[in-house]
Each structure stands twice: as structure tokens, then as C-alpha cells.
Amino acid sequence: MSQHKVILLLGSNLGDQKKNLQTALDKIKDAGNEIFKVSDFLTSEPVEFASSNIFCNIASIIFTHLSPVQLLTLIKDIEVEMGRTDDSAVTGGHTDRVIDIDIVTFNKIKFISERLKIPHQKHLSEREFSRILLKDFI
């Protein structure tokens, strides 16, 4: 099996945000993935919804043997396990969340399915906090 280079963005705006981000990375690693690089923490205002809770965000490069859909399933399971109740892809709206994990790139492929679009264009080009976090990763 080959290793796939993946860039993830993680965010949290509830509870101990930095601990939530580290816990998510630990769970990704414990599932057999290599955490190769992690950015510094960056705080940002919520995007696409109103909240008084500020986000703490990081970017990470991981190496995985999983396919894009298998990785998506893993990160969605981690989100639920950590207490996330609403998935914006399902509900169509954004809310406060303990953890949010997005696949930004997966190798250099383009992948589109009902559940997943790679690359994640909003993070690559539209969101300022994403561009700041990803500047040394892309």
C-alpha cells in the first residue's frame, strides 16, 4: 500500500480548544496515520455563521494508507466521538463545534463525491484563516 500525503485543517470553538485539537490529532495518529507536520495555533472569527465563540485552528500534514472516503469516515467518527453533533454537510448550516476536521488536499488528486470534494476550495482560496495556516503547507 502506498502512503498518501494529506493536508487537514482542524478547528474548535467550544471547550478547551487547544486540547480538542491535540486530542483529534492523537486519534488520527492512533488510527495508524503519521502526523508529519502541524502548524502553529491561529485564532479566528467564525465563518459563515454568527457566534461569540472564537475558533482555534491548526493545519496538519499527515501520511495515510486510507483512501479519501476511508479517511473521511475516520475523521467523521472522531468528530462524533469527541462530541460533535451537527455536520454542516448534512444540515447545510454551521454551528459551534468541539471539533471540525476538513480534508483540504489528498496527494494532488481531484475527487468529487456526494460526501467529499477534494481539494477543499473554500479553504484554499476563500477563507483568510485557511490561507494563513496553509501558506507553508501548499
UniProtKB/TrEMBL annotation:
Alphabetized Pfam families for the sequence: HPPK
Enzyme class: transferase
Matches recorded under SUPFAM superfamilies: 6-hydroxymethyl-7,8-dihydropterin pyrophosphokinase, HPPK
Pathway in which this enzyme or protein is active: Cofactor biosynthesis; tetrahydrofolate biosynthesis; 2-amino-4-hydroxy-6-hydroxymethyl-7,8-dihydropteridine diphosphate from 7,8-dihydroneopterin triphosphate: step 4/4
CDD domains from the UniProt entry: HPPK
This protein's UniProt keywords: ATP-binding, Folate biosynthesis, Kinase, Nucleotide-binding, Transferase
Function: Catalyzes the transfer of pyrophosphate from adenosine triphosphate (ATP) to 6-hydroxymethyl-7,8-dihydropterin, an enzymatic step in folate biosynthesis pathway.
Family matches, as PANTHER family: 2-AMINO-4-HYDROXY-6-HYDROXYMETHYLDIHYDROPTERIDINE PYROPHOSPHOKINASE
Record protein name field: 2-amino-4-hydroxy-6-hydroxymethyldihydropteridine pyrophosphokinase
